[in-house]
Design goal:
Strand content: 15-25%
Number of helices: 9
Number of domains: 1
Largest sheet: 6 strands, mixed
Order of helices and strands: EHEHEEHEHEEHHHHHEE
CATH class: Alpha Beta
Distance between the termini: 23 Å
Helix content: 25-40%
Shape: globular
Number of strands: 9
């Protein structure tokens, strides 16, 4: 069983016991508003082309490299907790029994391996709520598409990562440079030295490169979950009744899709949105 190593950056008291941290009101609202018909997670699907000369075990090796990574960001190691010890207040607590194989999974599509089978699988995965007992995220590496592409479906709770942060996180682990190697997984830990090396205006520059329609989508998803502007909610509800009901976030991959957390009932839908980024490299391959 692969588990996360103990890191110096995890918060502990003098006796080595994990210290909890309060959950901010916005994240707590996402957690408390969740129910069977209104899950509060967002899912994303990306499609990648294999590099030339990739062997039969390429996808398996990519999965194993991501699974065996030793560094995991603290954000992806915490889960919500509430008990008498916290006076009923929601707090973030480190998962002392973290198992990467629960969060990262390798799947294969049944024949004939069309996009239809891929969306059916992602629909089933997206219909399951994330358990509070574990960190609120999942990633699935999927092979078996008849055109040879590799898919990666991710599911993250809104309480953990907001829409814009998710877009920037995806951008940070993908490259359009075919010669760039060693891209980390989205949940990988970025050393503080690497963070300090970034220019002060890097975040503003990256955000400026995100198309305005993507920002509107990200704000729309948050508004839907929190029940904010009524006019925007009406627009989103119209989209949910359409056959392509998914609300797409921008990601620098050949094809990306997201499934919104709206009231879609027991039969959830998925849709597709295409973008262009030549030679997008999936995370985990060196």
């Amino acid at each position: 069983m692969a588990t996360a190593p103990t890191r110096k950056d995890r918060r502990h008291d003098r006796n080595g016991v994990s210290v909890v941290s309060p959950i901010d009101p916005t994240s707590a609202a996402f957690l408390l508003a969740e129910n069977r018909s209104q899950p509060m997670h967002v899912g994303g699907l990306q499609l990648f082309e294999k590099p030339e000369g990739a062997g039969r075990n390429y996808v398996r090796e990519m999965y194993e490299e991501m699974r065996d990574g030793k560094d995991i960001a603290p954000l992806f190691l915490k889960h919500p907790h509430r008990s008498l010890g916290t006076a009923g207040r929601l707090v973030w607590e480190n998962d002392t029994q973290f198992d990467i194989e629960h969060h990262l999974r390798h799947s294969a599509l049944p024949r004939p391996g069309r996009v239809r089978e891929l969306l059916e699988l992602c629909g089933r995965l997206h219909g399951t709520r994330l358990a509070w007992e574990r960190p609120l995220w999942e990633a699935h590496v999927i092979e078996g598409l008849r055109d040879g592409r590799v898919a990666m479906y991710t599911k993250t709770h809104h309480a953990l990562v907001d829409g814009i942060s998710a877009m920037r996180l995806i951008q940070s682990v993908l490259s359009t440079d075919p010669d760039r190697r060693g891209m980390p997984a989205p949940w990988g830990f970025l050393p503080s030295s690497a963070k300090a090396a970034k220019p002060a205006d890097k975040a503003e520059h990256d955000l400026a490169q995100v198309p305005i329609h993507a920002l509107r989508t990200a704000f729309g998803i948050t508004a839907e979950a929190a029940g904010l502007p009524a006019a925007l909610l009406r627009t989103l509800n119209k989209g949910l009744r359409n056959e392509t009901s998914a609300l797409s976030l921008y990601a620098p991959a050949r094809c990306s899709t997201t499934a919104s957390p709206g009231r879609a009932g027991s039969r959830r839908r998925t849709g597709r949105s295409s973008g262009s980024a030549p030679s997008a490299r999936p995370p985990g391959r060196r």
